[in-house]
């Protein structure tokens, strides 16, 4: 208490200090005192009221406890009295057994009297009920059936109570009401017929469906009542529980299954599109039925039936079973695609379960898959296996068709830019495109697998394409008159390689993400390498064709006839230009390479003619004349190939300069300077060999034995290092076998 008092004084001091912080507040001291006095009086009054209230409550509680104690004592005395009375009356109760039996008998007789009217009129009521069922008045028929069942059940119950082991009397009652069981079965048939046609009935006569549901609900209530009675007494009437609600759902389930299975109108033998038609019919049926169930049937059933939810589950299960059955059949590739597209995409799309009118009751994200992943994988594996075989067959057929075109006497078609082509690339990539579009409808993973398969088979196909192009060339070489359009079709084969390249790039850009495109770069590079090989061999074949026609004219070079004034080079230039008019139909990447190669081969053949030593110049005049002809012919070649490579930026000087450099060796009049001229030639063309030098000196005809030996020995000591940009030309030029010592002699 002292501590509390000290705290109160300290608090009061703080309050007074807070009130008297300024001098002018001293004038208000009396006012503060009165206010605090009022607060104190108010607090004291509240404390007194609270204490008084607590005291009153305690007083009342004590009074109630005293009363409760007295009541408990009174009850205890009463229970003692009741116990005494019960012990005294045990014998009296045992003496009343006869009265009890009389009461039971009276109850049975009362039930019989109460149902007497119904008992005598059972045949009549049965007939009336039968007539009502036939007339379709199901509610009224059920009411009468309920009355009959009630009479039978009451009689049998009373008999059971009297003597549960007396089966004879129980059977007698049951047999007397035997027709009633047939009525129940007949009524059930009518109900199940309505339930089977419920989706139609609900649109035409919803009242009939409501009546059926009411009858089922009545039976469910009776079933529950009878089951409760069995728990209490052990008795249940024959035919109970009927479980008509469960039967109703079973009938609906069978109806749904039959509707799904019965929607197949065609077979593969009658219509190749049988599965597409079947799946479309299923889609339409299911969507229409579920919309009717949501908008109409749901109103005809009690909410706790959850009729729409149950129907949705039945349709989903029936569809799953049907899809499993279809998946187990021996489906073709296009049929597998149709099935998987429908199962994986169409089923949950807005065309079916994702239809806005079915929301929110149908959540497509909560629907289980119609087919297990294992079944889907098996179908995809089958599809990929079948597709692989089909693609191989399609590619083989396309190549066979293209090979037949190579034998035609008419030129191949040209594209809008005038380049020759065949239909092979278009056929192949149209096939690839179609299969990729189909795969895209199923899944992203399948699309990538199909594209990988297409590229894989493309690689194998191009190897066969290369072989067939080579065989085409060899067959042509055996008889050049047999293929009148050989050049044009070989050009088309070369152009096809470029078209294949462009189509592959386009296909990958269209169907692959940049990341996946990067991953598949290696397969693309492999295909490009094969295509380049095919094109390279095709270009080489065309150049072989050119040089076969040039061969008679090339054989005139470096002969007496040539020195006297042959027009062989003019003919060579005209022939090459004529061929390249056809070669203009080759697409640029390959045309450019082919022109460069032709230029190189013409120069190489020209130098080969020099190395063949067909002529030896007799004097300086012949050497000068030969050198001038060589310079003129080099200029002709330069002009020709400059014309053929116009606009390509290709250097046409380097190769022809080799001919001019050799001409300088022949043109030289002072033999003493021959060593320097040959050294210059060697420095520019480090791949030149001693047999080449020997052949040049032999053709010149005036080099002494010592000069030849000095020049060749110098070459043997150490050839100069070639420039990094130097393209060897002498490397592939051979000189007819003749040893150097013999040449020196």
UniProtKB/TrEMBL annotation:
Gene3D superfamilies on file: 1.10.357.50, Exocyst complex component Sec6, C-terminal domain
Subcellular location: Cell projection, Growth cone; Cytoplasm, Perinuclear region; Golgi apparatus; Midbody
Entry keyword set: Acetylation, Cell projection, Cytoplasm, Exocytosis, Golgi apparatus, Protein transport, Transport
Entry keyword Metal-binding: no
GO terms under cellular component: exocyst; Golgi apparatus; growth cone; membrane; midbody; perinuclear region of cytoplasm
GO biological process, one term: exocyst localization
Any Pfam family matching the protein: Sec6
Domain of life of the organism encoding this protein: Eukaryota
Coiled coil: none
Molecular function via GO: SNARE binding
Assembly, per entry: The exocyst complex is composed of EXOC1, EXOC2, EXOC3, EXOC4, EXOC5, EXOC6, EXOC7 and EXOC8. Interacts with EXOC3L1. Interacts with BIRC6/bruce. Interacts with MYRIP. Interacts with SLC6A9.
Membership in a protein family: Belongs to the SEC6 family.
Function according to Swiss-Prot or TrEMBL: Component of the exocyst complex involved in the docking of exocytic vesicles with fusion sites on the plasma membrane.
Protein's UniProt name: Exocyst complex component 3
């Amino acid at each position: 208490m002292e501590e509390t008092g000290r705290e109160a004084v300290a608090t009061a001091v703080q309050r007074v200090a807070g009130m008297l912080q300024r001098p002018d507040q001293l004038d208000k001291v009396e006012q503060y005192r009165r206010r605090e006095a009022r607060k104190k009086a108010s607090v004291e009054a509240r404390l007194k009221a609270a204490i008084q209230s607590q005291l009153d409550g305690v007083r009342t509680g004590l009074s109630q406890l005293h009363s409760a104690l007295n009541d408990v004592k009174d009850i205890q005395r009463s229970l003692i009295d009741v116990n005494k009375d019960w012990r005294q009356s045990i014998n009296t109760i045992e003496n009343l057994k006869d009265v009890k039996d009389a009461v039971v008998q009276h109850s049975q007789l009362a039930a019989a009297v109460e149902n007497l009217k119904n008992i005598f009129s059972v045949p009549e009521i049965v007939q009336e009920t039968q007539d009502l069922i036939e007339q379709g008045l199901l509610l009224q028929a059920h009411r009468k059936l309920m009355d009959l069942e009630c009479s039978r059940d009451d009689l049998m119950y009373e008999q059971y109570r009297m003597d549960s082991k007396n089966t004879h009397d129980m059977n007698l009652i049951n047999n007397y009401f035997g027709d009633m069981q047939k009525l129940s079965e007949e009524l059930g048939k009518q109900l199940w017929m309505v339930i089977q046609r419920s989706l139609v009935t609900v649109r035409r006569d919803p009242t009939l469906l409501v009546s059926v549901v009411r009858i089922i609900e009545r039976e469910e209530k009776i079933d529950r009542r009878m089951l409760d009675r069995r728990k209490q007494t052990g008795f249940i009437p024959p035919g109970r529980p009927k479980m008509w609600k469960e039967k109703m759902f079973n009938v609906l389930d069978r109806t749904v299954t039959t509707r799904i299975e019965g929607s197949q109108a065609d077979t593969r033998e009658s219509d190749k599109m049988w599965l597409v038609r079947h799946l479309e019919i299923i889609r339409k049926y299911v969507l229409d039925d579920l919309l009717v169930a949501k908008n109409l049937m749901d109103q005809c059933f009690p909410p706790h039936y959850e009729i729409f939810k149950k129907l949705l589950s039945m349709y989903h299960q029936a569809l799953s079973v049907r899809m499993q059955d279809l998946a187990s059949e021996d489906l073709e590739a296009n049929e597998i695609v149709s099935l998987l597209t429908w199962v994986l995409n169409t089923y949950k799309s807005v065309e079916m379960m994702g239809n806005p009118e079915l929301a929110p009751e149908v959540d497509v994200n909560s629907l289980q898959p119609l087919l297990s992943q294992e079944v889907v994988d098996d179908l995809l594996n089958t599809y990929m296996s079948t597709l692989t075989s089909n693609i191989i067959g399609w590619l083989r057929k396309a190549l066979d068709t293209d090979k037949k075109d190579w034998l035609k006497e008419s030129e191949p078609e040209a594209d809008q830019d005038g380049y020759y082509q065949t239909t092979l690339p278009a056929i192949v990539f149209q096939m690839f495109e179609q299969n990729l579009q189909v795969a895209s409808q199923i899944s992203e993973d399948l699309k990538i697998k199909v594209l990988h398969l297409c590229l894989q088979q493309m690689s194998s196909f191009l190897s066969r394409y290369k072989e067939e192009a080579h065989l085409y060339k060899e067959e042509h070489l055996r008889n050049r008159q047999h293929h009148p359009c050989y050049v044009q079709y070989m050009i088309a084969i070369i152009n096809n390689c470029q078209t294949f390249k462009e189509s592959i790039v386009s296909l990958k850009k269209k169907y692959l993400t940049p990341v996946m495109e990067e991953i598949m770069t290696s397969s693309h590079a492999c295909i490009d390498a094969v295509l380049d090989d095919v094109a390279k061999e095709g270009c080489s074949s065309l150049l072989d064709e050119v040089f076969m026609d040039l061969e008679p004219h090339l054989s005139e070079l470096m002969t007496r006839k040539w020195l006297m004034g042959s027009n062989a080079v003019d003919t060579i230039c005209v022939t090459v230009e004529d061929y390249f008019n056809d070669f203009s139909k080759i697409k640029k990447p390959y045309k450019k390479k082919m022109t460069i190669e032709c230029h190189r081969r013409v120069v190489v053949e020209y130098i080969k003619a020099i190395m063949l030593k067909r002529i030896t110049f007799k004097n300086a005049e012949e050497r000068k004349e030969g050198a001038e002809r060589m310079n003129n012919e080099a200029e002709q070649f330069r002009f020709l190939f400059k014309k053929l490579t116009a606009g390509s930026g290709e250097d046409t000087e380097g190769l022809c300069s080799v001919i001019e450099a050799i001409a300088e060796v022949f043109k030289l009049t002072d033999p003493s300077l021959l060593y320097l001229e040959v050294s210059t030639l060697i420095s520019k063309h480090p791949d030149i060999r001693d047999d080449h030098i020997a052949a040049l000196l032999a053709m010149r005809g005036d080099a002494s034995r010592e000069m030849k030996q000095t020049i060749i020995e110098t070459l043997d000591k150490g050839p100069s290092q070639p420039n990094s940009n130097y393209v060897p030309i002498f490397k592939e030029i051979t000189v007819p076998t003749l040893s150097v010592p013999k040449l020196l002699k």
